[in-house]
Design goal:
5-stranded mixed beta sheet; 23% strand; single chain; Alpha-Beta Plaits; Ribosomal Protein S5, domain 2; binds (3R)-3-hydroxy-3-methyl-5-(phosphonooxy)pentanoic acid; 8 helices
């Protein structure tokens, strides 16, 4: 039995779209920040009888809803040549409708706990590769601070780009709904690939945005990192929007408008968003408390979580 803890991450340079073929390989490189203060804690036990059992936040999950997690467990069982069913118990200490992808921290914690519970001495890079097959963004949560995920001939490689202290960045998660139902990212990506007249433009722009954001992070340039991150999210959503994949709600646009107004008043405030309507505002440590209050006052914003760069997945 082994327990692992992982934190969610937010992409500064987004990935959107998969490469053709098997293996869940992103079509473009991405770069994220792992967030402290919010965690998924997952315990895996091998050696049971019958079917694998997966319990999320106290609720036993039906097989159909957890096919990717079951595939991950199967591949660990095969690599370790062990028999017997697995029992997985996973808890998030943040609400699943918080606008933070629980699949990233979830698959990172599962991949680490499962390999260690099976007695495998898999390298962190290979654990990240296992997590990526469940959810591509999960590969980045194996590493702390700022992390990249870069597709290559062999698949995709995750690695740390800069440690937690590289930038005094804060992420203000503006939660705008308790409703967790959105078009899942894999469905939204596939629809964008198949139907968006701007998907080719996104595939062309994303690697350049990634390279520029990576350079800004490595140089410790907070303002440039935040500015380019906002552009990456807007380019991704523009390509999705043209395929009818819409994650914006009225309040999402109200937060974006407030962010632009704050910026016009001289504040560091840039917005990013993923496959859901919540807005994550990027700012400096110094400005974060005041800005969180301002954003919390936008009608329709339910609460604002303040997150800082955090560590990679670990076995406590
Ligand atoms: O990890 P997935 O395949 O669910 O996709 C995540 C996609 C985004 O969050 C929108 C962008 C990213 O790079 O994390």
């Amino acid at each position: 039995m082994t327990t692992a803890v992982a934190h969610p991450n937010i992409a500064l340079a987004k990935y959107w779209g998969k490469r053709a073929g098997a293996g869940n390989v992103p079509a473009v490189p991405s770069l994220s920040v792992t967030l402290a203060g919010l965690s998924t804690r997952t315990t895996v036990t091998f050696g049971g009888r019958g079917e694998d059992v997966i319990v999320l936040n106290g609720i036993v999950q039906p097989a159909g809803a957890t096919a990717r997690a079951r595939a991950l467990i199967d591949s660990v069982r095969a690599a370790a040549a062990i028999d017997g069913a697995a029992r997985v118990e996973s808890e998030n200490d943040f609400p699943t409708a918080s606008g933070l992808a629980s699949s990233a921290s979830g698959f990172a914690a599962l991949a680490l706990a499962a390999t260690r519970a099976a007695g495998l001495d898999t390298s962190v890079a290979d654990v990240a590769d296992l997590a990526r097959r469940g959810s591509a963004s999960a590969a980045r949560s194996l590493f702390g601070g700022f992390c990249e995920l870069v597709p290559d001939e062999a698949g995709a490689r995750a690695a740390q780009v800069a440690p937690e202290g590289a930038l005094p960045l804060r992420v203000l998660v503006c939660v705008v709904t308790e409703d967790a139902k959105d078009v899942p990212s894999s469905v939204g990506m596939e629809q964008t690939r198949a139907e968006s007249p701007y998907y080719a433009a996104w595939l062309d722009a994303a690697p350049r945005l990634f390279a520029d954001i990576r350079a800004a992070v490595v140089a410790g340039d907070l303002a440039k990192t935040c500015e380019l991150s906002e552009r990456s999210a807007l380019a991704m959503h523009a390509s999705a929007l043209a395929a009818g994949v819409v994650y914006f709600r009225p309040v999402t646009l109200d937060v974006y408008a407030r962010v632009r107004a704050l910026r016009a008043a001289g504040r560091t405030a840039f917005a990013t968003m993923d496959a859901g309507p919540h807005v994550k505002v990027l700012t400096s440590a110094d400005e974060s408390e005041a800005l969180a209050r301002e954003l919390g006052a936008v009608p329709g914003v339910l609460r604002v979580l303040v997150a800082r760069p955090g560590p990679g997945a670990f076995v406590p």
